[in-house]
Amino acid sequence: MKAARLEAIGEFHVRAVETPSPGPDELLVRVEAAGICGTDRHLLHGTFPCRPPVALGHEFSGIVEAVGDAVIDFRPGMRITGNPNIHCGRCVQCRRGRINLCENLEAIGIHRDGGFADYVLVPQRQAHELPLSLPPEHGAFCEPLACCLHGIDMAGIRPGGSVIVLGGGVIGMLVVQLARLAGATSVVLVTRQAARRQLAEATGATASFDPGSGNVIEGIGGPDGLLPGGADVVIECAGVAETMADAPKLARNGGTVVILGVMPQGETVAIEPFDLLFREVRVLTAFLNPDTHARAATLIAEGTIRVEPLISRRIGLDALPDALANPPRPGEVKVLVMPGRRD
């Protein structure tokens, strides 16, 4: 089979490798679609820890081809989405229910071979069934949606509330829809790209703002801004220093900031603790997808979250190294790798 492997930091190639065989508790899954994530670029450049050599791709879905002897809930021919984050269940954090902080956490596509391949092995407990009637590409959105759900859970959005979403990538676009689903009546997406602003408003944002058009803090939270005084909840989805620094300033007094975006390891951002204290702004971080993947699969399967408009390109495995080595094209939201596609 073919697999796109990170051989070492900066070395990413498509190679012919042996097709794996499932262990007793594993599924062999033929990958139908796998999403390119910003984290994959961090992995390529060494700014997010991983364990090369490894096939990348942690956002994937596909068809079960074979199962191990101990598998009872799945059979060949079923479509599944794989939760890539595998917790040990034994460490202190796992026993506290904080499985995303597992001291022995391993992830498919980061520490184990992932979905940028013709086939991937998935432990039975990490698999969630999807209907065969679902467009195959849609299943690849379950993992990013699950991470967004964790952030939304932490944000505590109330019906009638206001939300600012910083960043117009796939995480920002999914958060816009989830915020509206949670009852927010005002959702403002902030991004420089006009195509992404238009897409956000077409899929649920009540307004959008171009930071290139003027001061973001004044333009949104100022007396004559879109949300005078700021928002109840600000969700940072871009993972860049500028938006990380802006996020607390856009929250109203007593508001909440949730950080979903991933900045490169080692980078820092200046904040003003005095301002946070005297305005009692909560700053929270949401890491991974603890107990949210099944919910994400249900939302995708039922069509509650619209993902088709978020697909910018579909490519085969051979086109992946070039796509990953370069920044997203202007206006792109999600590029899907379809290993069965021969470009």
Automatic annotation (TrEMBL):
Coiled-coil annotated residue ranges, if any: none
Domain of life: Bacteria
GTP-binding keyword on record: no
Every Enoyl reductase (ER) domain range: 7-337
InterPro entries: ADH-like_C, ADH-like_N, ADH_Zn_CS, ER, GroES-like_sf, NAD(P)-bd_dom_sf, Zn_alcohol_dh
Keywords assigned: Metal-binding, Oxidoreductase, Zinc
Cofactors named for this entry: Zn(2+)
Single GO molecular function: zinc ion binding
Family: Belongs to the zinc-containing alcohol dehydrogenase family.
PANTHER family documented for this protein: L-THREONINE 3-DEHYDROGENASE
Name of this chain's protein: Zinc-dependent alcohol dehydrogenase family protein
Source organism of this protein record: Shinella sumterensis
